[in-house]
Structure of Nuclear transport factor 2 family protein:
Amino acid sequence: MKKIILVAMCSSLLFACNEQKPAEEKTATPAVETTQQPAEFADAKYTDIGKKGLASLSGGDVDSWMADFSDNAKYFWNGGDSLIGKAAIAAYWKKRRTEVIDSISFMNDIWLPVKVNTPQQQVQSPGVWLLSWYQVSTKYKNGKHMRQWIHTDMHFDASDKIDQVVQYLDRAPINAALAK
């Protein structure tokens, strides 16, 4: 009887040792699509550039504000007016700040830095855009005041310089405040 138990144990042991282990199932990692989104959030450093620019303009330091512009920058208003070149933009704002505007302040600002990878329209420029909304309060040299909301879009070139500004504002309150 001992021999039978011993043979049974050896047989079981031998069978267990010779049994093929099933191949380990490999868990496949799902392929992650790396398709680029048409647009994504951009670095917050662009918001800092925008905020610093408004602070400089508010303080009357147009040169400091213009330091972040490229030499070939373009400045457009929604009414169709435009300025081409850093020198023209600087001259306009220096004259405005010294001869027309007594004080200007910006409040309730909202900033959104966006990187456009694939423009949705042919006229759109790819790259980094800083979208901003803020309320502006202006006191003019004639003593009149104006307050309104403004939306500004700034495009940055590869050197992180502003090469395009599009500003949306209502000219009516400005014209009313400047009327003689």
